[in-house]
């Protein structure tokens, strides 16, 4: 009686490893060369512009016109905090810090209001029937079907002197209200624009929760505040953190709403960057402002990753 022959005994070592790799590959799974075109496109159109902006922030400004002079300098970053007069005296200049402060305040107000509005809505959506939940998610995502400019112009029609708000105000005897081209209109536009970005992550965190556990807590004598604080809020925390980032960072650098609804009366960081690349033709300084915002975003993401590791909760920055 002969012993069974191992079919891999006569194969070369390289052939055995290649065959083992093919066996380990799951059905329908592509190798890494199939993802190479997508990786190249991502590097070209995502990483490429970021690298260009970072390089431009360390370049010099030409004497006239836009563009950059390829000479290394830290002047764009120094000019963010200091100003040099014609005599060469350098003094602290808080103007751009005030712009950052105004942008930060508007972004914080947008984030807080969106959170206060979104959490009850997302909780209510998560407690509905599956069919109704799908319909409610559809209603929340309907604004994404229309271009942002179209939605902003619609708000301009609503808030102008002859809009529906002023018509209702005059009909009730309150007179005409100055709403359009004010900081209030800009703030309202930001809240409307970014509200779905807060609702959807919180809803995604609560959608799979078995609310019979909350009912059991009620049966055991827990109050509504205790149930929300000890059961629902910990479950919704990853969605809340994701929503805060998805709302705060775009609202911090927003451009469309402050210009169209606010009339550009309040200078924010998005308007400042656009003016540096446009009217002022100071590309290095505009790039430096963009890099500062990018660094703030990186710090926020690192803080979220640190929180996720310490708490053991997985936080995903996605809708």
Describe what this molecule looks like in 3D.
This protein has a domain at 95-311: MetI-like (MetI-like fold, Orthogonal Bundle), CATH 1.10.3720.10. A hairpin with a 5-residue loop joins strand 1 (82-84) and strand 2 (90-92). 24% of the residues are buried. Helix 12 packs antiparallel against helix 13 (283-311). It is mainly α. Strands 1-2 form a two-stranded antiparallel ribbon. It has helices spanning 13-24, 36-56, 75-81, 95-126, 130-141, 148-159, 164-171, 183-206, 212-219, 224-252, 256-260, 269-277, 283-311, and strands spanning 82-84, 90-92. The chain is built from 13 helices and 2 strands; from the N terminus they run αααββαααααααααα. The chain is globular, with a radius of gyration of 27 Å. It holds the Pfam family BPD_transp_1. Belongs to the binding-protein-dependent transport system permease family. CysTW subfamily. InterPro entries: MetI-like, MetI-like_sf. It is a multi-pass membrane protein. This is ABC transporter permease.
